[in-house]
């Protein structure tokens, strides 16, 4: 079964950005996960020796942005840059010694991340203008209306290898499946703008999940990233039946093996801050 999309109906637009300059706060020191001070380098500019496909861990830096980081000095334009650009979009150098060279958008952080061949990186300069051919905003999977596609270009979906099983289920290949506990900074933001950090200093947990072997650009799945909580039916039954002498709003609750939990007292209660249980002010017998 072929994966059908609305790719032919999408609007293709040009946006521009500039190779951003690295910045550091004053003072530049920040504590690491061990509580030791360090200077967290690696954000913005041109990073020559870290690219997509390299290990995600082990670098002597923090939030290292692989390849070339681009942004726009006009906040409104930069906002549009983030919302319109999708992973897999083509980027072309417009000015400078590398003018005409082409690369591809590979990710997003505080800035957009673009991958260029090493010989192009050597010719790029801070401030060079980059034109991005945006394509992907509004992309939909026609046979899976309950699934939202965000920040992915039609080219990425094509190269990703998504397929539909004989049973009609969407199959999405990923390198690792991670628990929601790894999510950190960015959870408060919309998926269209900037990124979602995967954060933990627990090396044993990373090894257990297989995350310690991840490479930059790997596609992973994070289960229940929307906060969904799964409770097994038997676990729920066991917890309910084990309820005994629980101080509920309508009285003390004790559940029986048949699921009956109490002889509730019907009435109207008035709650005052700091007062528990609340004051019973009316019963049917009154």
What's the CATH topology name of the largest domain? Thrombin, subunit H
Q: N-to-C SSE series?
A: EEEEEHEEEHEHEEEHEHEEEE
Major sheet attributes: 6 strands, antiparallel, barrel
Q: What CATH architecture of the largest domain would you give?
A: Beta Barrel
Structural account:
The structure is a single chain. By secondary structure, this protein is an alpha+beta fold. The chain folds into two domains: 7-222, Thrombin, subunit H (Beta Barrel), CATH 2.40.10; 239-282, no CATH class. The protein has five helices and 17 strands. The strands form six sheets. A six-stranded antiparallel beta barrel has the order 1-5-8-7-6-9. It has a two-stranded antiparallel sheet with strand order 2-3. Strands 10-11 form a two-stranded antiparallel ribbon. The protein is elongated. The mean pLDDT is 84.
In a nutshell, what does this entry contain?
The chain has 286 residues and is α+β, with helices and mostly antiparallel strands.
Secondary structure elements and their pairing?
Elements: E1 13-19, E2 30-31, E3 37-38, E4 46-47, E5 67-71, H1 75-84, E6 90-93, E7 102-108, E8 112-115, H2 118-121, E9 129-134, H3 154-160, E10 163-164, E11 170-171, E12 176-178, H4 203-209, E13 220-222, H5 233-241, E14 246-248, E15 251-253, E16 268-270, E17 279-282
Parallel strand pairs: 12-13
Antiparallel strand pairs: 1-5, 1-9, 2-3, 4-5, 5-8, 6-7, 6-9, 7-8, 10-11, 14-15, 16-17
């Amino acid at each position: 079964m072929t994966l059908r999309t609305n790719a032919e109906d999408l609007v293709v637009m040009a946006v521009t950005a500039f190779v951003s300059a690295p910045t550091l706060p004053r003072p530049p020191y920040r504590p690491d996960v061990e509580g030791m001070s360090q200077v967290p380098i690696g954000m913005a500019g041109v990073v020559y020796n870290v690219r997509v496909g390299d290990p995600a861990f082990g670098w002597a830096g923090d939030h290292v942005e692989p390849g070339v980081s681009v942004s726009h000095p006009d906040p409104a334009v930069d906002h549009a840059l983030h919302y319109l650009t999708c992973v897999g979009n083509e980027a072309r150098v417009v000015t400078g010694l590398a003018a005409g060279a082409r690369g591809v958008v590979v990710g997003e952080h505080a800035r957009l991340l673009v991958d260029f061949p090493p010989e192009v990186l050597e010719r790029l300069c801070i401030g060079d203008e980059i034109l991005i051919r945006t394509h992907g905003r509004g992309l939909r999977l026609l046979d899976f209306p309950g699934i939202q596609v965000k920040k992915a270009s039609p080219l990425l979906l094509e190269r990703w290898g998504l397929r539909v099983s004989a049973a009609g289920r969407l199959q999405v290949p990923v390198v690792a499946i991670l628990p929601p506990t790894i999510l950190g900074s960015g959870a408060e933001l919309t998926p269209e703008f900037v990124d979602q950090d995967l954060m933990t200093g627990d090396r044993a947990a990373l090894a257990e999940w297989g995350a310690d072997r991840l490479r930059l650009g790997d596609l992973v799945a994070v289960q229940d990233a929307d906060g969904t909580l799964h409770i097994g039916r038997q676990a729920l039954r066991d917890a309910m039946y084990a309820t005994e002498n629980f101080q509920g709003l309508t009285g003390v609750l004790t559940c029986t093996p048949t699921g009956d939990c109490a002889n509730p007292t019907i009435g109207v209660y008035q709650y005052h801050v700091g007062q528990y249980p609340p004051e019973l002010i009316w019963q049917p017998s009154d």
